[in-house]
Amino acid sequence: MKYLLLIAFVAVIWWVLKNRSGRPAQRPSKASPDPEMMVICAHCGVHLPQSDSVDENGLYFCCEAHRQAGKASGRP
Length: 76
Prior knowledge:
Elements: H1 2-22, E1 38-40, E2 47-49, E3 54-56, E4 59-61, H2 64-72
Antiparallel strand pairs: 1-2, 3-4
């Protein structure tokens, strides 16, 4: 009986130490990037982040082809 209690005691201590050391330290949460301004393509109307747009004279375009098309249609 005393050996059974000794084995149970050692098992509980081993289990507590194993679970305690296995926990990762709390990591700081990932900071989300700052929100980015969304603009509308002057040619097709699609919404896109300003950093992905092509800017010309205050107008935003989704790609170089739409910038060229806007220029050809007489827009400034």
